[in-house]
Amino acid sequence: MKARYTRRAAVRHLSIGLAVSVSALSLAACGDGGSGDSADGKKSNDITVGLLLPDKDTARFERFDYPLIKQEVASLTENRGKVRYANAEASVSRQSEQFRQMIADKVDVILVDAVNSKAIAPDVRKAKAAGIPVVAYDRLAEGPVDAYVSHDNELVGQVQGRAILGELGEKAENSKVVMMNGDPADPNTARFKDGALSELQGQVDIVAQYDTKEWKPAIAKANMAKAIKAVGLNDIAAVYSANDGMAGAVIEALEEAGATRMPPVTGQDANLDAVQRVVSGEQYMTVYKSFLLEATNAAKIAVAKVQGRSIEFAALTRETVDSPTQKNIPAMLVPVVALTRDNIKETVITDGVYTVKDICTAKYRADCAAIGLE
User: Fold this and answer.
1) Which of 108, 244, 357, 371 could disulfide-link to 47, CB 3.0 to 4.6 Å?
2) Helix (H, G, I), strand (E, B) or coil at 110
3) Helix (H/G/I), strand (E/B), else coil: 182
4) In this structure, which long-range contacts are made by residues 9-17, counting pairs with CB atoms below 8 Å and at least 24 apart in sequence?
């Protein structure tokens, strides 16, 4: 399947100083400092950003995305802008209700990470009719969205696929690999999968693939048990897992089946428990996506849209993406990096996501010491 997006500028690498680069994209807040609209019709700093996030199972949303967006909106508006937050807890109907409530409450802009990108489209259209801009966050919502902020999602899959090939080395050609894909209702799933397949197809023997409804770890664990039974525990050379929640479930299934040596298992999101599994060697890697860059740039774009400033000419959206319902959506695509035992310090610790103390609890102290993480 061809990925449904194009790029004006290729985004391919994440440097250690990525968090510092946020300041280079920072925009000074506009407005006359009063309430309501300014004399030229632009909104002042007294704005309300509606934030709709999809679930609480993905640790980053509650721990990082919401607080970071709230903090950045406050910073851009002299502490006068507010964020009205709702989490759908993986319910499509609940998110729709929350979205409609945001419209009824006349928020100034809506940031939405859709539970189901297609199902949210009618609500996006209602917001448009009400004159409320909508910014798709992390997942590309269908309907007339004004902008999109996410990561280079095809690159995420490529990074995961390359990690598997790199670890398998010369044995890759005859290796049996299981693919644990995400929720087919999530548009990112196809892009992760396309990226991974672009690296793995023709290089390994993909013996089983599973879609995972709502990214639920319990479903991934059950499917992994099926794969173990069908392929044979000792014949599984690697597991492509699209995210960390499923990676943990895959590892549990392998352990319960009696695995004494864990095959390389991929992940995504750099959840704390996943980073700890990487430290211990249970999980081979995870894809670290800078929450700081994604969240702060989403806040910048949301505030700019309300205040009538151009998100394209301000260099906030240097790419474009296509959804099934809209072409050439202005987009900010944030780079990603493979997190392994070798670069934990240079990624999540340097960026302030976790401290050594967070990662190196008593259970992982010896493993941390073994890789110089003390």
Assistant:
1) 108
2) strand
3) coil
4) 9/318, 9/319, 11/152, 11/155, 11/319, 11/333, 11/334, 11/335, 12/152, 12/155, 12/335, 13/335, 13/337, 14/288, 14/290, 14/335, 14/336, 14/337, 16/346, 16/347, 16/350
Alpha-carbon distance of 134 to 87, in angstroms, equals 17
**Overall average pLDDT of the 302-330 stretch:** 87
To the nearest 10°, report the CA torsion of 239, 160, 264, 227: 0
Q: Is the pLDDT of residue 335 over 90?
A: no
List the structure tokens of 301.
């774009």
Q: Are strands 176-180 and 134-137 parallel, antiparallel or unpaired?
A: unpaired
What's the pLDDT tens digit per position in 9-25? 333 333 333 433 333 33
Structure tokens at 71: 């903090």
Which of the two residues, 100 and 41, has the higher pLDDT score?
100
What is the sign of the dihedral through the CA atoms of 83, 11, 277 and 251?
positive
**Three-class SS state of 12:** coil
Question: What is the structure's pLDDT at 374?
Answer: 84
The radius of gyration computed from the CA coordinates of the chain, to the nearest angstrom, equals 21
- C-alpha–C-alpha distance, residues 31 and 4, integer Å: 37
Q: What's the CA gap between 2 and 29, in Å, rounded?
A: 39
pLDDT at 127 over 70: yes
CA–CA gap between residue 62 and residue 11 (Å, rounded): 27
How many Cβ atoms from other residues are within 10 Å of residue 231's Cβ?
17
Nearest CA among 69, 21, 139 for reference residue 303 = 69
Give CA–CA dist 374/368, Å, rounded: 6
- Judge whether 111 and 51 are in contact, CB under 8 Å: yes
In angstroms, what CA-CA distances link 35 with 80, 102, 154, 236? 9, 20, 42, 62
Lowest mean pLDDT among 23-27, 61-65, 191-195, 367-371: 23-27
Residue 43's pLDDT is: 59
**pLDDT per position as a tens digit, 145-188:** 999 999 889 999 999 999 999 999 999 998 999 999 999 988 88
Q: Phi/psi at 167 (nearest 5 deg)? A: -75, -35
Kindly tell me the burial class for residue 257, based on how many C-beta atoms sit within 10 Å of its own C-beta (0-12, 13-18, 19 or more).
Answer: middle
